[in-house]
């Protein structure tokens, strides 16, 4: 089948999470991580980082069950929203138009789909602009989050995820592969960084984590120190450390509902047209932590369930490969 043109995706733009206690979520994301509130209404908070000039990069919506409501990609032009609609319709997927005013606050006409991996994904062009806070040093607090960097999703079939995102025009910066080049994980991008989306093999569709960027590694360390000082160290799951893949400095936290977030800084430029994929062997114990520190089991196994377009929880399918069972030092598992 010849598919219609793929929409021109700019970047991973925002995620909307369902949270069971908006006050607790606000403490975590606003007070501790340092997101700024752009819009607030009973039941919903729209948040952004200091560098973001659009309305939000994270939306927290109150619900009975914690879940991923949807992830969203911004596209280059209003016409690309129609392209997304035609592209996913040709794939036989569930596709829904969400006119301005009926979807997420601040976002104009959008299209929501259940993609071939089972994820609820929005494509939009139009979004309200926001005030520049990059030099409002007086407003900075907590981890001083600058922007959303990436989505990491759990999906059972990594080659299928790779093929789908290739068909949407994504490049591949890095992979983790077995001895026969079987894919355990892949990092894919539209903006000129290591990734907008990465795949962790496991039961899916589930959201593994949101990656949010700080400017400097000391902000990552400070976030960990603040959680420790407040006796809230149980929110720290993995790190701080240096990733092999991406070279970023990182810290994984769990929010009050268990949604995972990675504070991430100092990856690299990938924008040259002949940028080559960097391939890690799954037995290299520097791949997930460059210093060879163990990855704990919860990081491989636990993730956020995802909703369908009607707000119902989706079933998951088990992963085809289990990286945590591979015998390497960096896991301390297997
Ligand atoms: O654990 S990995 O070093 O493979 C890794 C995980 C690299 C970059 C990421 O953003 C990530 O979540
Ligand atoms: Fe990440
Ligand atoms: Ca080791």
Short overview:
This protein is an alpha+beta fold and 334 residues long. 16% of the residues lie in helices and 33% in strands.
How does this model look, in words?
It is a single chain. This protein is an alpha+beta fold. The chain folds into two domains: 9-124, 2,3-Dihydroxybiphenyl 1,2-Dioxygenase, domain 1 (Roll); 143-324, 2,3-Dihydroxybiphenyl 1,2-Dioxygenase, domain 1 (Roll). The protein is built from five helices and 18 strands. The strands form two sheets. Strands 9, 10, 11, 12, 13, 14, 15, 16, 17 and 18 form a ten-stranded mixed sheet that branches. It has an eight-stranded mixed sheet with strand order 2-3-4-1-5-8-7-6, covered by helices on one side. β7 (110-114) and β8 (120-124) form a beta hairpin. The radius of gyration is 19 Å and the shape is globular. Calcium ion (CA) binds next to loops.
Outline the low-pLDDT stretches: none
- N-to-C span: 42 Å
Total beta strands: 18
Q: How do the helices and strands follow one another from N- to C-terminus?
A: EHEEEEHEEEEHEEEEHEEEEHE
Supply Rg: 19 Å
Q: Which CATH class of the largest domain?
A: Alpha Beta
The tally of helices reads 5
CATH superfamily of the largest domain: 2,3-Dihydroxybiphenyl 1,2-Dioxygenase, domain 1
Quaternary state of this entry equals: single chain
- Could you estimate the helical fraction of the residues in percent? 10-25%
Shape: globular
Computed structural class: alpha+beta
- Bound heterogens, unique: 3,4-dihydroxybenzenesulfonic acid, fe (ii) ion, calcium ion
Q: Roughly what fraction of the amino acids lie in strands?
A: 25-35%
Question: How many discrete domains?
Answer: 2
Assign the CATH topology of the largest domain.
Answer: 2,3-Dihydroxybiphenyl 1,2-Dioxygenase, domain 1
Largest sheet: 10 strands, mixed
Q: What integer is the average pLDDT?
A: 96
Instruction: Assign the CATH architecture of the largest domain.
Output: Roll
